[in-house]
Amino acid sequence: MIKADPSLDSNEKSLQDMLSHSSDFKATNFQSGDRMYRLFYLDTMIELEAVQEHIIRPILHQTNESTLRGSVSVLEFTETELLIDAVNAIVEGNTVLQIDGEAKFYLLGTELKKERAVNIPVNERVLRGSNEALIENVSTNINLMRKMIATPDLVVKYYRLGRRSNTKVAVLYLRDLANEEVIQEFERRIGSIDIDYIEAPGFIEELIEEKRFSLFPQLLISERPDRVRSYLMNGKIAILTDGSPDCIILPVSFWAFLQSPDDYQIGWLLGSTFRLLRIVSFIIAISLPGAYVALVTFDPRVLPFEIALTLQSSMQYVAMPPVLEAIFMLVTLEILREATVRLASPIGQTIGVVGGIVIGTVVVQSNLVSTMMVIIVAFTAIASFNIPSYEMSSAARLLSYPFILMSAIFGLIGLELSFLLVLAHLARLHTMGIPYFYSGMNKETIVDTLFRGPIRSLKNRTKESLAKDKTRIRIQKGKNK
Asked: Has keyword Membrane (predicted)?
């Protein structure tokens, strides 16, 4: 490690070399009494008024007995003798101060903070509950979480990931709830990451998950602080990344991706109904096109006679076989969805509506696909959009393709075999060493998996979090029965 030199000019040259002679690197001299001071900084990263008011002016007016720490009025004040620490501080927006003749740097916090205001969630619509969303600044996000969880048990640990990007990552958990073994396993995995840069939380997610070739998301991503709070209160771990408004939550089970914070803002009967609806929507999204292909190709006799006649009449002049119909329509739907997402909002909505109507009408009139197939694919898409998690919704849409192929080859037996393979895969998955597909039929878990039970029945925290304190609600005997 290269240490600081007592010479100001020597240190300035070293810092210039380490910063590749960047044009925004500046060095400013000023003198107070018999001492010469020099400031090193990037003028694109600091707040110049703060440097003038809180560093230069106080030093110029200090008395002989005053120390530097007692003179400057900045909250972030550290000392170092290493050049690499000074360079890292400059890149992060700090101002580095050196006194001529001293082989020491003073790192002063003067970062220019420009960020968008806290706004409503964009990707997770709020029906009831907090309308605040996480933003790209990790410090602001931690501020939101500390306001929501006002307890000294909330632990915040910082990591630096990326050899070149040096991305700031914050890990949050509640000391008295989070399982020590889960924390150690997570720290082992995040400590083993060796990469040039971290572009988004998706990088971290992919680098620490266990099954890299699984379609199912193994870590939950959310932009809602109230949702992050609820998982922290269950003993889970949250990961915030500087530059991204998304938070990674772990460990989670399969059922977490079918839950919404809004379930707990309404009565338990309505919450249970909507949760069951999402589970049914997931099953429809992965299997409905395959079931249609299997029925019309191999087993039309399973259907009632009137429905079979309707299907036969709609397919009478269709040129393509049912399996190609289904794949063609699903691919077309994905193209329309991508076009809607990538284009500007007004144009995207127009393309989605007009494109869907035009394409649906043309393909039916030209006898490329049947009217029933258009209805099946549209219903499948709507069912997939009913899943709260974008990652799980995308996985459901992709899973429909192998279901279609298996159904086209083996009929209804292929459909059943596809379900068995998916269930076996889910049963083998783990997240942070914890089983991913906890049974929803267990008496202890069913109250918060398949259903959203009454608050009084949610006495224990979720099993997959392995929380130290498993009891969530305590009701005294003889009261509130």
From this structure: yes
Is omega for the bond preceding 251 within 30 degrees of 0, making it cis? Answer: yes
Specify the length of the chain in residues: 481
Domain match, 421 and 332 both: yes
Whole-number Å distance between alpha carbons of 287 and 363: 23
Helices in 212-267 by DSSP H: which ranges? Answer: 225-232
Q: Quick one: 421 and 278 in the same domain?
A: yes
Torsion sign across C-alpha atoms 243, 156, 197, 182: negative
460 domain residue, yes or no: no
Asked if residue 320 belongs to a domain, the reply is: yes
Q: What angle do CA 142, 143, 146 make, to 5 degrees?
A: 85
| Domain ranges, residue 149 | 138-252
The residue out of 66, 93, 109 marking a domain boundary is 109
Give the Cα separation of 395 and 381 in Å (integer).
Answer: 12
Q: Cα angle vertex 164, ends 169, 104, to 5°?
A: 85
State in Å, rounded, how far the first CA of the chain is from the last one: 67
Q: What pLDDT, in 10s, does the model give residues 394-439? A: 999 999 999 999 999 998 899 999 999 999 999 888 888 788 887 6
Q: What is the pLDDT of residues 440-461, one digit of tens each?
A: 666 677 778 888 888 887 787 8
Q: How many domains, the chain? A: 3
Same domain (yes/no): 89, 177: no
Residue 473: inside a domain: no
**Mean of the per-residue pLDDT values of the chain:** 84
161 & 240 share domain:
yes
In a domain, 312, yes or no: yes
Domain limit, last residue, from 201, 221, 252? 252
Q: Which two tokens stand for residue 213?
A: 């070739």
Average pLDDT over residues 35-51: 88
Characterise 20 by phi-psi region: left (phi > 0), alpha (psi -120 to 50), beta (else): left
pLDDT at position 346 over 60: yes
What separation in angstroms does the CA of 396 have from each of 212, 216, 239, 426?
Answer: 17, 8, 25, 13
* Count of Cβ atoms closer than 10 Å to residue 143 Cβ: 13
Between strands 237-241 and 247-250, the pairing is antiparallel
